[in-house]
Amino acid sequence: MSDLRDAAMNSKAWPFEEARRLLKRHEKAPPEKGHVLFETGYGPSGLPHIGTFGEVARTTMIRRAFEVISDIPTRLICFSDDLDGMRKVPENVPNPDMLREHLQRPLTSVPDPFGEYESFGHHNNAMLRRFLDTFGFEYEFISATDFYKSGQFDAVLLRAVERYDDLMKVMLASLREERQQTYSIFLPIHPETGRVLYVPLKNVDAKDGTITFDDEDGREWTLPVTGGNVKLQWKPDFGARWAALDVDFEMYGKDHSTNTPIYDRICEILGGRKPEHFTYELFLDQNGEKISKSKGNGLTIDEWLTYASPESLSYFMYQKPKTAKRMYFDVIPKAVDEYHQQLKAYPTQDAAAQANNPVWHIHSGNPPESKMVVPFAMLLNLASVAGATDRAGLWGFIQRYAPDATPEGNPDLDAAAEFAVRYFRDFVAPTRQFRAPTDQERAAMEDLVARLKTWDGGLDAEELQSLVFAVGKDHGFEPLRDWFTALYEVLLGASQGPRFGGFIALYGVEETIALIEKGLAGKLAA
């Protein structure tokens, strides 16, 4: 453990860099509450999505990194903003007409359109918890409704009444003039209709801890700010929550970054210490546009998990969180293969290299052994030329290449074989474009067939790669990459592909000869 701790204190892996920054926060004294608190927030107006996964996964990576370099206990809370008013009826729920009469009521006061839970908010919270539990995240759940109504927020809310002018000064400076006229940090919840009201306040009484306002019908009301009678607007709520819970760390997307000074100042005015932040870049779709829940562009969690393992998604989330990345189906094969490359490298590395290896962070310091004896990209090409419709169609080739491999003994490979068949069927097959070879390519491929027909070197992938390499060199391909591109385009219908020697070893020498002859005869391009 001491070797790992030493490595962690010098590691350039971003979770360890963030963990060291967090440790510095407590260098003078450990936190009075006895632990370091990590928080992630969730707006339960819809189902959890890939951004939710990324936020909790990355926060967990920093938490585990912190636990290596510090003996201070840690907690992670997932906070659901379920006291928010329902602003619009979601499009993807049953009984939408029933929901319309409940607009602007807190989500935990809106009936569940699915008829399964106490409220729509409770339903979405249950979906969130099931989602997080599926991935094995360790967290504690907090409902904003419970937080406000139980009195846990009362001390900070009363402080907000006392320091109302200072808080309003921060908020008004960030608003347009028109919005300033009616803005208040407090949103009363109407005692009769139960709706969250966006109304100007007539009076804020610090002594009594109350606010006075007129409702939409012109009736005057005075309510205590405690006990769940009011909620804070979302920006003040962010900072007030940090103060109330004494949050040490929270990450959020770049779209929040301009509000960070507001959140921090609200927290400080309310007597808290602003937490450490980490701002991550947003994901882009195939067109370079920001992924949006309402647009439905980009990838969903379910879509990723249809074609690859959750660990490969964690690997993708680990990579360069401060860089905007395209997140579309074509990133999946690369993520799968790179993840397994890192898994295979891990046992051979010293403590310093292991601390920098993504799989340490994905698996909280205990990565499994990779049993992927065939890369995912190779399985895709195998599915292509073998015409496999399920993983059983690939195992005959796999076991000839790796006789000791079995579906039971190599479960990650078995799952990947099924994923590869699905991915090939849905994304590769519809876009394949075969072409006829040029005269130079034809001569080289005929030569390759001749050499393969006299080949007696077995299924050694490296030896076969050397053979293919030698053919390309003998036929004057410059750069040599053009030779391999020709093989991919003529035989596989794609401009990129696997190491061709490995492909021959997996698919079989005789089968590869037959494939090349079909390509030379124009049967593939046809």
Give the count of helical stretches: 24
| CATH superfamily descriptor of the domain at 2-144 | HUPs
Q: Report the end-to-end length measured between terminal Cα atoms.
A: 61 Å
CATH topology grouping of the domain at 2-144: Rossmann fold
Computed structural class: alpha/beta
The proportion of strand residues reads 5-15%
If classified by CATH, what would the architecture of the domain at 2-144 be? 3-Layer(aba) Sandwich
Give me the count of strands: 12
- CATH top level of the domain at 2-144 is Alpha Beta
| Morphology call | elongated
Provide the spatial order of strands within the biggest beta sheet: 3-2-1-9-10
As an assembly, this protein is: single chain
Q: For the CA atoms, what is the radius of gyration?
A: 29 Å
Runs with pLDDT <50, length 5+? none
Helix amount = 40-55%
Major sheet characteristics: 5 strands, parallel
Mean pLDDT rating: 93
